[in-house]
Specification:
Blueprint (H helix, E strand, L loop, with lengths): L15 H12 L4 E6 L3 H10 L8 E6 L9 H5 L7 E3 L4 E2 L5 E3 L4 E6 L2 E6 L9 H13 L3 E5 L8 H9 L3 E5 L8 H8 L5 E3 L1 H12 L2 H4 L16 H13 L8 H14 L5 H10 L1 H11 L10 H15 L9 E6 L5 H17 L5 E7 L2 H9 L1 E2 L9 H7 E4 L2 E4 L1 H4 L2 E5 L11 E6 L8 H14 E9 L12 E5 L4 E4 L28 H21 L2 E5 L5 E5 L17 H4 L2 H17 L3 E10 L2 E12 L8 E13 L2 H10 L6 H98 L4 E4 L5 E4 L1 H7 L22 H11 L3 E6 L5 E10 L5 E10 L1 H23 L3 E5 L5 E4 L1 H7 L3 H4 L15 H13 L3 E10 L3 E15 L2 E10 L1 H58 L4 H33 L7 E3 L1 H18 L3 E6 L6 E3 L1 H18 L5 E9 L2 E8 L33 H11 L3 E5 L7 E8 L24 H4 L8 E5 L3 H13 L3 E5 ...
Parallel strand pairs: 1-2, 1-8, 2-5, 3-5, 8-9, 9-10, 11-12, 11-17, 12-16, 17-18, 37-39, 43-44, 43-45, 45-46, 46-47
Antiparallel strand pairs: 4-7, 6-7, 13-15, 14-15, 18-20, 19-20, 21-22, 21-25, 23-24, 24-25, 26-27, 26-30, 28-29, 29-30, 31-32, 31-35, 33-34, 34-35, 36-38, 39-40, 40-42, 41-42
């Protein structure tokens, strides 16, 4: 009925509100123009864009066939031709109006919800349908706002896309043939019949600009289609009646939304803005009516659309309808709305596949109908373009299609199954006794009322076991009592037995009529009113209208109206609807006469006063016979009405008896009535006799005419008989010829049998696998070896090759065979089977005697042994080459002409040459003659002449690429290969080896020198350790000796005082030694840090002089100082600088004899300060001056030296001065001449002033300033907690502090100290703790203390008294929570000062 096939799933039975919303949403979308091109497309794109305005409100998407392996410059080139933004598409990019988008290479692009999407490009049968893919998605996305343009190109891409766009209501363009550089693409699109405009690119641009200004496009709103004409008629109805008049199709029953969209599309094509203008255009141009008709019925379909639906048919429908079939009961299928036949053929192919697989072969009848005659004609031919069969698998193409010049044609066996005919579902009768009806995506375009009429018709047309298949968006609606659901997804229904008799009433036929009077559209509500009116008419007719029947010319009753039982009754015997047989006997004569008169005169005929006798009653009856002829009916019909005219009368016999018995009493009026009745019966009889006479005369005339025809036929039969006699003679002659031909055929048959036997024996004897295939790839013949490789048996002859699982590792064997059949080119390649056996595969076309191609011959030649040998040779060669290439030495093979045959990789890499620069060239010419070495030339010539060899020839040469190298050469003659003598030259680069040997000799010399220096240093270290031992033991001896005397003997006061003084001096000396050792340790480890601040040098020097003044006075040495009065400041560590001056002064006092003199000067020169310490002492030997500031070095290192010390002081001095950025040096005129030490310090340094936590670290001196004790107020009431694991230290500290009035508690461990603190909250003022203690050290103790609350002593002032005296330990102690870090030993006065400081008992001065 309709060709409308939508590739996307449509909504059926949508409510008007939803349709309106969908239209409104679509109208808000701006148009998108898709342009597709291939070869020559760049020029077409550029010309089109250059003539386009920039404000069309459209978006332009360009799809060009591009090289997949190269970057596209299309967007860059096209951006020069238009002012619109040109962008290369990225995945997920939204489309905007007045923009140009270009597809990137190697992608397929689609559009969905206004967003462009990219996927990697795929090929379908070797073709990339990128234009079709985008056009199809554009049609689904934009519908009537989609515009497709096909430009220059060399294939059929885009044709299917423009069909989809036009099917969705869009507009299509194609470039004209003359303007296209390559015209295949636009010509193919034009040939499809779906292109609206065929123009040049410039004209296409102009037309697009005009379309963009159309109100339907520019305002993005649809004009109202129901706007009335000035005359008051409905324009849309007039258009429908024009279509009905021209094509016989009433579109009033179609859904109005689709029709309006199609009409608007045609208005855009002709630039018409008002519906009235388009109506006038239709009236003035009859061709446009046909164009609009085709546009409304545009076919959009494809093969095997929704493949799963066809699989559902195979699994759920075909097994049922094919069951228990006989040759007399064909499978009958009706495909309604078949369009151009793709669906009908798809069903036929699927059914054939199923029947073949099932092994049954019943007859098949497929009726395919559509209202579009153009589509039906194409379906009958069955020829489709390659793009239209893109969804058909290669196997089906090969089996069911035949390739023709313009594409593919459905094979004749399939075409013969399908009968195509034009049919209007709304008006024409259906097919019957059907097994399957498919009506996919047809009902969605029809109104609800028509759908309700069609479904009972489908039910009527199906067998009891029949099936109905609808589109995925369609259902049976309220007719669930007629159909049961079989497949919900693909809408397959099975027929149910109707509980009541169906009233199937087809609408009036819509064949062409003479006038085009408008009829109101039948909406769903209007149709319900008509049904109501019809029901009311039935009630009125049943109660008040006379009973009657409708009969045809043969007096067969077609329809009963009202209660006809009083006038008609079934006749005995065979059932018949003949009116005269069913009419009661009293009416038959009058009925025959009346119908005869009505038929002859073609006017209504009435018969009155007829009597019907029933038992003892007589009824008066009136008969009316009305002839009529329905519109478009071929014959006339008669409406026969029966009506009683008076009450029932007694029977006529009784009236006659009464007349005889009581004549006198008879009423004269009754006699008159009887006379009138008799006259009427007589007149009727006369009329009947007259009609009989007329019929008899007509019959006689017919008989005479028939007699004449019989006589004529007799003459013709006599003539025919003579012809038959002649034909008999000809047949006899032909029979003799056939006998001769039969003999010839028998002889040929014998020859053919002989040839077949010979061929069979030949194939059996050939030890080569050979397989012969037909054009459909079915097996014809094969050799025994081919049977093993292809797993064949004798019964496989005639089977498709695709059914066979062969042993070759060649998945595309069938494709290659088809390619040979199609191209006629021989194919050869090496293949392996699953066991790894090698064959040479050769595929040749199978040629018949008349040089026609009818299949292919597949030959396999056994090359396994050859292949294995070649692999072994190749493996051996690769093995040898791998060994040669991995050898570190350079290898060169020369021929007798001393030309290089080959060389290994090491040679090329070592000498930086390439094989092209080396091979086939003289060895002496390589690298600009770098191997032209006379000695090498002589040795090589000697090998050629005397078959000698040379080894370990060392050549030192300056090579061009790699510089000066030393090479070791070995050469000899190689065993002959192919009778060609060769020389092998081995070159080893020993430059590195020579260098290593030289370096080894140098290192050996250095090692000997270093060993001597180490031995010297070791001796110095031994001397230093001896001195350290001596210097440490001397004070210990004094300490231990005097301590024992004090412990064991009662010494007098003088001796006791002497002992104490000696012990004190020894302890001080030992402390100084330890301090020096710590300083030198810091120097060695690089951990010496300065407390830098802004200072003046003069006070520091004076303080140092004050410290050593007592020692100088002891030796009567005079110290003189001379310092400039300038108060210049510098950055430095005052304590360390004082240490430096004190060290120099102590050394000067130590080495200056009694009564000597020491001079200290301070001078400033530009940016530095100079300090000099000069003495009149014993001086320094000139040989020792260079080593004066080294560690562990002393001028007098002998055991007989008179001055004690470790030899570290001057080393520490140099390090401290250098830390300040200065220098120190010494001068002496020699022994006995004194010495002068000069210190130079920069006034501006890079040192940064820092503030480090201050710790009272004693400057080692002989005397301690007593000013510390003068500042102490008192320790009375100060509570001190001492923690130390050494008993002597605890007792010493306790004794010292109690002597000054302090209250001391001493504990041995951290846990005990913590318990004491917690047991006496707020009971202590100062905490003194050792660091190194067993189990828990001082760090753990202070950490736990600081975690206590202030009430429990968490903030008690604390000092760490420890023998760990390094800078690192000091930093760790302060960070742990101690306020002070005091290095042991601690003198009593300093201990008292520390406690007083922590307790806040220091007097402010």
């Amino acid at each position: 009925m309709t060709s409308r096939r939508s590739s996307k799933k449509s909504q059926s039975n949508s409510t008007p509100a939803k349709t309106s919303d969908a239209e409104q949403e679509e109208n808000q979308l701006f148009p998108i123009v898709g342009m597709g091109a291939s070869a020559g497309g760049l020029e077409a794109f550029a010309e089109l864009l250059s003539h386009l305005p920039t404000d069309t409100g459209m978006a332009f998407v360009l799809v060009q066939h591009l090289s997949p392996n190269q970057k596209s410059l299309l967007s860059e080139i096209l951006s020069r031709t238009t002012q619109m933004p040109v962008t290369e598409v990225e995945n997920g990019m939204s489309v905007e109006p007045n923009h140009v988008y270009v597809i990137p290479p190697n992608t397929t692009m689609t559009i969905s919800q206004g967003v462009l999407k990219l996927i990697p490009r795929e090929k379908v049968f070797g073709l990339s349908k990128t234009v079709d893919a985008f056009f199809i998605s554009l049609a689904q996305e934009r519908g009537s706002k989609a515009i497709g343009v096909v430009l220059s190109g060399g294939d059929a891409d885009g044709t299917r896309g423009v069909e989809e766009i036009k099917g969705a209501g869009g507009i299509t363009f194609a470039q004209s043939e003359k303007s296209a550089k390559v015209n295949s693409m636009p010509n193919t699109a034009v040939a499809s019949g779906h292109v609206d405009f065929i123009l040049t690119p410039e004209a296409i641009a102009e037309e697009l600009a005009k379309i963009s200004r159309h109100p339907y496009v520019s305002h993005r709103s649809v004009s109202k289609l129901t706007e009335p004409l000035p005359e008051g008629e409905d324009v849309l109805l007039v258009i429908f009646n024009l279509l009905r008049t021209a094509k016989g199709v009433d579109f009033n029953h179609y859904k109005q939304t689709t029709l309006k969209r199609r009409i608007l599309r045609r208005m855009i094509l002709y630039k018409l803005e008002r519906l009235e203008d388009y109506l006038r255009y239709l009236q003035d141009n009859p061709a446009e009516v046909s164009a609009l008709y085709q546009d409304v019925l545009i076919a959009v379909t494809s093969f095997f659309r929704d493949p799963e639906a066809f699989e559902a048919l195979k699994s759920k429908v075909f097994p049922v309808i094919a069951k228990d079939r006989t040759p007399e009961s064909p499978i009958r299928i009706w495909v309604s709305g078949c369009s151009t036949g793709e669906e009908a053929y798809s069903i036929a192919i699927c059914l054939l596949e199923y029947l073949t697989d099932s092994g049954i072969n019943p007859p098949i009848q497929i009726f395919a109908t559509d209202i579009n005659e153009v589509a039906i004609e194409k379906a009958r031919i069955g020829i489709y373009k390659p793009s239209e069969v893109a969804d058909v698998s290669p196997e089906r193409l090969q089996r069911f299609f035949i390739q023709v010049e313009s594409g593919y044609q459905i094979g004749k066996p399939v075409r013969e199954l399908c009968v195509f005919a034009r049919q209007n579902l709304i008006a024409d009768p259906p097919f019957s006794k059907l097994d399957l009806i498919t009506c996919r995506n047809v009902l969605i375009y029809l109104g609800a009322a028509v759908q309700k009429k069609l479904l009972p018709i489908f039910h009527y047309g199906l067998k009891l076991t029949g099936f109905l298949m609808l589109g995925t968006s369609e259902t049976v609606g309220e007719f669930s009592d007629l159909f049961s659901l079989v497949d919900r997804k693909y809408k397959i229904y099975a027929r149910k037995v109707a509980s009541t008799q169906l009233g199937i009433a087809l609408p009036m036929s819509n064949h062409p009529v003479e006038t085009a009077n408008p009829q109101p559209p039948v909406s769903e509500d209007d149709w319900n009113d008509l049904e109501m009116q019809k029901a009311a008419d039935k009630i009125v007719l049943s109660k008040y209208a006379p009973a009657g029947v409708i009969v045809n010319n043969n007096l067969v009753i077609l329809q009963f109206r009202g209660q006809t039982a009083p006038y008609l009754q079934p006749s005995p015997g065979r059932a018949s609807f003949n009116l005269l047989k069913m009419a009661k006997e009293d009416l038959r004569l009058e009925l025959r006469t009346a119908i005869h008169q009505a038929k002859k005169r073609e006017i209504p005929v009435r018969k009155e006063g007829l009597q019907i006798r029933e038992n003892d009653r007589v009824r008066q009856v009136k008969i009316d016979v009305i002839p009529f002829k329905p519109i478009a009916a071929a014959e006339s019909y008669f409406l026969v009405l029966f009506e009683d005219t008076s009450p029932s009368l007694p029977p006529a016999s009784e009236i006659a008896g009464d007349r005889n018995l009581s004549a006198r009493r008879r009423n004269p009026t009754a006699d008159q009535q009887e006379i009138i009745q008799l006259k009427q019966e007589l007149a009727t009889t006369k009329e009947y006799l007259q009609s009989i006479i007329e019929e008899q005369q007509a019959t006689n005339q017919d008989l005479r005419a028939a007699n004449e025809e019989i006589l004529s036929s007799n003459e013709e039969l006599q003539s025919t008989n003579e012809e038959l006699e002649t034909a008999k003679e000809e047949i006899q002659a032909t029979n003799e010829e056939l006998n001769t031909i039969n003999d010839e055929l028998q002889r040929r048959n014998l020859e053919t049998t002989q040839v077949s036997n010979d061929l069979q024996n030949l194939l059996s004897s050939i030890n080569i696998p050979i397989l012969m295939l037909g054009g459909d790839l079915r097996i014809r013949r094969f050799t025994p070896l081919a049977a093993l490789i292809f797993n064949l048996i004798s019964t496989d002859v005639g089977r498709p090759l695709s059914d066979i699982n062969h042993n070759l590792n060649l998945p595309d064997l069938e494709q290659q065979i088809l390619e040979v059949i199609n191209t006629l080119n021989l194919k050869t390649q090496e293949v392996r089977d699953q066991d790894g056996y090698w064959y040479d595969l050769r595929i040749r076309p199978y040629r018949t005697i008349d040089n026609k191609i009818d299949g292919a011959v597949v030959v396999l030649v056994d090359i396994n042994a050859l292949k294995r040998s070649a692999e072994q040779v190749r493996a051996s060669r690769d093995y040898a080459e791998a060994i040669v290439d991995t050898v570190r030495e350079s290898l060169v093979v020369l021929n007798l002409d001393l030309r290089v045959i080959t060389a290994n990789q090491s040679f090329y890499e070592t000498f930086q040459v390439t094989p092209t620069e080396t091979e086939q060239r003289l060895i002496f010419e390589i690298g600009n003659g770098q191997w032209n070495i006379p000695q090498l030339r002589s040795l090589l010539e000697d090998i050629l002449q005397n078959n000698a060899q040379f080894q370990d020839l060392e050549v030192e040469h300056n090579f061009e690429q790699i510089g000066q190298k030393t090479m070791r050469l070995n050469g000899r003659k190689m065993p002959q290969t192919d009778d060609i003598p060769m020389i092998l030259l081995v070159i080893e680069d020993i430059t590195r080896r020579k260098q290593l040997e030289a370096e080894r000799t140098q290192l050996l010399t250095q090692e000997q020198s270093a060993r001597a220096a180490a031995e010297t240093a070791n001796r110095a270290k031994d001397e230093f350790l001896s001195i350290v031992s001596h210097e440490l033991r001397n004070p210990l001896n004094s300490l231990l000796g005097w301590a024992n005397l004090l412990r064991k003997q009662q010494l007098d006061e003088a001796r006791t005082k002497q002992a104490i003084e000696s012990i004190h001096r020894s302890a001080k000396a030992q402390a100084q030694l330890i301090a020096d050792l710590l300083d030198i340790s810091r120097v060695s480890s690089g951990r010496f840090r300065l407390n830098v601040q802004s200072i003046e040098l003069a006070p520091i020097i004076e303080a140092a002089i004050k410290v050593v003044s007592i020692s100088a006075e002891t030796k009567n040495i005079q110290i003189e100082s001379r310092m400039e009065p300038a108060t210049k400041r510098m950055l430095g560590d005052p304590i360390r600088l004082q240490q430096v001056i004190w060290n120099l002064l102590s050394n000067a006092i130590k080495f200056t004899p009694v009564g000597g003199r020491i001079e200290v000067t301070l001078e400033y020169f530009d940016l530095q300060a100079q300090i000099q310490v000069s003495d009149t002492g014993q001086g320094i030997n000139a040989d020792f001056l260079p080593y004066l500031f080294e560690r562990f070095r002393q001028a007098d290192g002998a055991r007989t030296r008179s001055n004690p010390g470790l030899g570290l002081g001057l080393s520490i001095v140099r390090h401290l001065v250098e830390l300040h950025g200065g220098t120190v040096d010494a001068q002496s005129q020699g022994e006995g001449q004194g010495a002068t030490f000069t210190i130079r310090l920069p006034l501006q340094t890079n040192l940064q002033e820092i503030s480090l936590p201050s710790t009272e670290e004693a400057v080692v001196s002989i005397e301690e300033p007593e000013v510390l004790l003068d500042t102490i107020l008192s320790l009375e009431g100060v509570r001190v907690l001492i923690v130390d694991d050494e008993t002597d230290i605890r007792e010493l500290f306790t004794t010292v502090l109690e002597a000054y009035g302090g209250e001391v508690t001493a504990v041995t461990s951290a846990s005990e100290a913590l318990s004491t603190l917690m047991a006496n909250p707020g009971g202590y003022d100062v905490l003194l703790s050792d660091i190194g203690m067993p189990e828990e050290d001082g760090f753990m103790l202070i950490g736990q203390v600081r975690m206590l609350s202030p009430e429990l002593g968490g903030r008690i002032p604390a000092a760490a008294l420890t023998a760990y005296a390094g800078d690192v330990e000091q930093t760790e102690v302060l960070a742990a929570g101690f306020q002070m870090h005091i290095a042991k030993p601690v003198e009593p006065d300093r201990l008292v000062f520390i406690v007083a400081s922590l307790a806040g008992r220091i007097r402010n001065t």
